Amino acid sequence: MPDARDRDQGASEVSERIVVVGGGLGGVRSAERLREMGFDGQITILSAERHLPYHRPCLSKQIITGEWHPDDSLLSFSGDLDAEWRMNSPALHLDPKTQSVWVPGGEEIKYDGMIIATGVDARAMGGAPRHDPRVHVLRTLDDAVAIRKNIRQSQGLVAVIGGGFIGCELACSVRHMGRDVALIVRSPALLGGVVGDDIGKKITEAHVEHGVRLATGVGIKHWVRQPGGIGIHLSDGQVFFASCVVLAVGASPAVDWLRGSGLVIEDGVLCDATNHVVGAENIVACGDVARWPNLRFNGVVRRVEHWLNAVEGGRAAAENLLVGRSHAKPYTPVPRFWTEQYGMRVQGAGLPVLGTDTTDVNGLTGFIADGKLVGIVGLESPGKIITETPELFRQNTVDTNRQVWTQPAEETAAAAEVPEVLPTTQIPVPEPVAARASSVPPSVSSSMSPPLQRRRHSRSRPEMVRVGGGRARP
């Protein structure tokens, strides 16, 4: 990143500014890493939310059930962060040529470097009556509070649309509250088969045993809104009448603010192997919004929507922004993920979605592609996951000579304007400032998501908070 002093010789005191767009987990961890590496300029964090950073995994669990108060979900972060927080200030437009970003009120903010960490938005569902206050999505803390309020103030069935991690966790939480719940899923199996047939079957059986009304392999023909609830007519002839509906049908990268910027934003912000944004100077991206080629796993560009990727990706993006594109190192993690339902903990590592076959790996489900182990998933097997994860690092070595395809083969010609390959020739780099978690097998402490204990511990207070671009509040 070029020195701001070189661009303004006449200024008596010039400080570089890095703007972090996104006030969630990836944004705050990247900002922390900037300070750890010695960056002493300005850090401005633009957040679309009114809340300081919080843990999202608890939204479908402890926040919905009421076990946690919203304040219990807040993240701890470094007291040395010394950042300017701009709450209720989503980025509206980016001009990479002038290195400017605009926020509500028409304010233009100049930057010397930028970290894009805007994450994802809940995916819309065609035909669903989203304007009805009884129909919800779950992405933010406010969403979770609204769902909990709707459930507590109503009677009757709660319908959850979608059988992924969020949908299944929501159904589990609603049953924990003693309410009837229906889980309506387009695919024939829960969790979309990403955990393997055996574990998927056990999760499905657990939902049925706990009284979930399960409808799989069905679509929704139409919705009927009535004063007492919402009728959901399914393609197999079933009709559910719900007092509360939650749409959990996936997520879409939060990139609307980048339209017109010239960046490639189909299914996320296109990045190179070091998470530098393609087509822009001094911008990196991290977390759910970043689409980059992981040279450890075949070099095809893809997004990874896991908690730990926001942490590791945020730190790696900050490092690579500071050292510059020519000296940056590829970001090559082995992703890890987990879900807990009815007291059963499912954990995974790698990219099981790449698997074309499965095998037994010390009691875990191993996913195989091209003769290599590319993922493992286990049920109530944390020790085995920790033991076997280094094998994923060993079998999936980083290939910096690989051609990096920016489009999977099955994608259509709609994105034909995107360059087909990106160069991956690496310039020798100095030793990193600190060891990166993604470059070595994970330790026990770093292998999974945050512990589930209540969080009423002390938290660092932001040095400055601005709400909606208004006056600073200490």
From TrEMBL:
Keywords: FAD, Flavoprotein, Oxidoreductase. Its cofactor is FAD. Residues 432-451 have a biased composition (Low complexity). Residues 432-474 are annotated as: Disordered. Residues 17-314 form the FAD/NAD(P)-binding domain. Pfam families: Pyr_redox_2. It comes from the Bacteria. InterPro entries: FAD-oxidoreductase/Apoptosis, FAD/NAD-bd_sf, FAD/NAD-binding_dom, FAD/NAD-linked_Rdtase_dimer_sf. This is NAD(P)/FAD-dependent oxidoreductase. It comes from Lentzea indica.
